């Protein structure tokens, strides 16, 4: 093992820019990095692919954490150890609240902790909440980009595919939960424990999720559609612009 690299994502032990966009897919990390000036790949180990570069003069990290919260926590911890203080998760989600369309953005204000890992870090009563300044920065960036946008609670769930246990979908829908995804609560809890700033913006890639999908009408879950790709393109800019706005606020 190289002593000056982190054990999991193989990141430098220090000196990274203080702001990061984190995504699930290594290919999406590369696509976001293409928007940066002077982008350079600094690590690629397992699902963890990391780039540095600058967005409108702001140094930034873009890194992938793979699928699921347990592995994502490892990346968040190693990025924080290396100097990242502000995170925006940019991912996809399935809508479970009426009125949220495919390709729309959902900004997570907080998350249901059904992630499969944070229960082993802190008691279940500990909240998973986004930093208010990150929520507002993401909302402003979405408005400036003309991106359809919604705010609300998201459901972070470890098992993406249908499982053996019945899901409490009706209860969460009645409570106004906006969407289901896999990593936001892990980021918010990590940020809370370490005194970091964290937010999340999610592109809706399906009207529902898991067995809620009307397969007869939709052909099943399919995130590989033009409307989703267009939302992802908008969402990448929104995530980067929100980080830039947060940096400007900090520097005032």
Strand content: 25-35%
Strand order in the sheet with the most strands: 5-8-7-6-9
Counting DSSP E segments of at least 2 residues, the number of strands comes to 9
Overall pLDDT: 93
Structural class: alpha/beta
Unreliable spans are: none
Order of helices and strands: EHEEEHEEHEHEHEHH
Terminal CA distance reads 41 Å
Give the overall form: globular
Protein architecture, described:
The chain is of the alpha/beta class and 252 residues long. Helices cover 33% and strands 28% of the residues. Strands 5-8-7-6-9 form a five-stranded mixed barrel. Helix 2 runs parallel beside helix 5 and helix 3 packs across helix 7. The model has no long low-confidence stretch (mean pLDDT 93).
Helices and strands in order, then pairings?
Layout: E1 19-23, H1 26-33, E2 37-45, E3 48-55, E4 58-64, H2 69-81, E5 86-95, E6 105-114, H3 132-145, E7 149-157, H4 169-174, E8 179-181, H5 184-194, E9 197-206, H6 215-218, H7 226-251
Helix pairs in contact: 2-5, 3-7
Keywords:
alpha/beta, 7 helices, 33% helix
Concise synopsis of the structure shown:
The protein is α/β, with parallel strands linked by helices and 252 residues long. 33% of the residues lie in helices and 28% in strands.
